[in-house]
Amino acid sequence: MTETITVPDGSSLAGVDALVKTHTERAFTFRVHNQSDNEQAGVLRKWLGSTLDAIEAQRKAESDPLHKAWRENNARYKPLTDALSKAYKSLGEAMAAFEDAEEARRTAALQATAAAYEQGDEQAMVVAAAEASSAAEARTPQGTSIRKVWQVASINPDLVPCDWRVPDVERIKAHAKATPADTAPVAIPGVTFELKPIVTTRRK
Asked: 109 in a domain, yes or no?
């Protein structure tokens, strides 16, 4: 149960797989009923931990060069993709702004046409109708579509209803962790705490 294994280079983990499967299955079903069981559990846990460290070290040794290559590749392309994305977005914003302006111009011209009609001003009505017609001729270029969606512009946390708020889970966890074991954590409404054991076993 305490044998040391050599982790291969990743091309073949068959032997390690079998050994890990045997010991992890035993750990999952192992129950401590007396001090002898407790000692055996400590030995098994030490093996599990040291084996985990060995496998993690090998995995890291193999994956770090891949991560480095990915970062280098990303750094090479990122300036280009960033520039293209920003330019793409900028032109889209310009097109959307033009469409909004044309819609506003058309609406204003239609209102002016109606007002001129009400006032019996034929000349003003003709001019306003021509303006409305000119604005209506604006079309989105082929292959491009524009639609509108609602987006958040600003948030005032003090005014957001409770059911739309998200608890700061990490802060709550840090508050619990920072509290000594012999002292109850300062209460937080809606949060319950429990004292849990943390078992540490030397792996070497």
From this structure: yes
